[in-house]
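pinging the channel bc i need a second pair of eyes. not urgent but kinda urgent?? the chain im working w is below, pasted from the shared doc
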Amino acid sequence: MRSSKTSSLALAAALLVAGLGLSQQAAAAATIVINNINGPGVGFNDTTIVAPIGGNAGTTLGQQRLIAFTHAANIWGATLTSNQPIIINAQFSALTCTAASAVLGSAGATSVFRNFPNAPKPNTWYSYALANKIAGAYQGTLNAPQINANFNVNLGGPNCLTGTFFYLGLDANHGTDVDSVATLLHEMGHGLGFQTFTNGSSGAQNGGFPSIWDHFLLGSVTGKLWKDMSNAERAASALSIDKLVWTGAGVNAEIPNVLRMGLPVVSVSGSQAGAFAGNHPVGEASFGPSVGTVAMSGAVMPVLDAGGVLSQACTPLSPANALAVKGNVALLIRGTCGFAIKVKNAQNAGAKGVIVADNAPGAVTGMGGSDASVTIPSVRVTQADGVALLAQLGKRTRTSSGVWAAFNLVSSQYSGADPLGRMMMFAPNPFQSGSSVSHFDTSAFRNQLMEPAISGDLTHSVMPPQDLTFRLLQDIGW
């Protein structure tokens, strides 16, 4: 997962929790019923007094949480069609946290069904809400909840993405906080069926039957759909990085209308670039100017801590480092603080751009976070590329390195799609439980709602030209 101030979302089917609370209904093309299962004084029932914000008129923290949830449910309700109510058991509780990262929420279908009336694919699992929609009748126990959703009650507190809270306004003006509505839309998407019920780590199908999801997942290494693979082939495909794609016609037809043409790279040149000269893939930040929107090139200068090691730049740069990066491109390393914090510290020191080297092996991925005051572009490179780049800076002076970097777009490939124009799905190596397979790949740009982390530039749309989420749900039967 991205280790950043905008943390990763975890996908998990939560256990059904018994409880009593208020229900609030969002009625539109599909009726969504929200069951508040928090106890008194907790989560949706928190009586802490707060001021209305961003179109949310609630006057207690619990009220604002429920209003934001209902707003997100209204967006989905106006988008979906079903003659059966979609019932969500929802709560706030303590989820996994550190000071620099946190699980924002988790959600999933409470049950799956196959071979129900009108099922398009035989012997195939469908999420509860989707099965009800297709059958036109309630499956299982009447009015049982189809989705469990759980959100982090401690977000922003000590040692839980410290200082970064859920923004409960309805207008997306979340600043450096996490947009609650986007997070809610994301988790509801999982509960509606944006997930496989096949074990991505072992490759084992649920009860020996594929998910409807698996009819559209293709491993481009084997050329097989997941439904046709062996367990071992599926497990390998889940680790294939950029070789797991979606074949659904609805998603792929909209790619030219949603994703950007061109892949982001850092183009390295200069008298001291040596063998590292050339184009290198990068991950983009969800804050600041995106690659290709502003011209950016300059000498690369490292930000160093004692002992000559790359700095995390979690605090303002020292005078020597500030002198080195002023008017240049700063090279930093990923670490314990958020990406936006690092980039802002480099910007404050006068840097014109930032390269963040990863601190662990793996494929290139993006940088989450949000800070509207960041005005310089920044990118992330792999650990191996960071090491190689730092080695080429060994002959630098205090103010010049002889190594130049430009942030460019290359290729006729869409950002987030494979060379054949198929949407890539998230398949990192090593496997990331709760995130792998059941999300769009992090290389997508524009950023998508159903990537494994909430990006700061998301809108509240689930439709083209902003987003591909509903098109995928249509592919599987919505």
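so The two ends are 29 Å apart (CA to CA). and The chain has three domains: 23-192, 212-258+416-437+439-469, 261-411. — does that match what u expected or am i reading it wrong
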